[in-house]
Amino acid sequence: MKAMILAAGRGERMRPLTDFTPKPLLQVGFKCLIEYLIESLAKAGFTDLVINHAHLGSQIEERLGDGKRYGVQICYSPESSNGLETGGGIFQALPLLGKEPFLVVNSDIWTDYPFARVRLIPEGLAYLILVNNPDYYPQGDFTLLGKQVRVEGGDKLTFSGIGVYHPDLFTCCCPSRFPLAPLLRGAADQNLVTGEHYQGQWYDIGTPARLFNLRKRLS
Question: Alpha-carbon torsion 40, 214, 128, 14, what sign?
Answer without folding.
Answer: negative
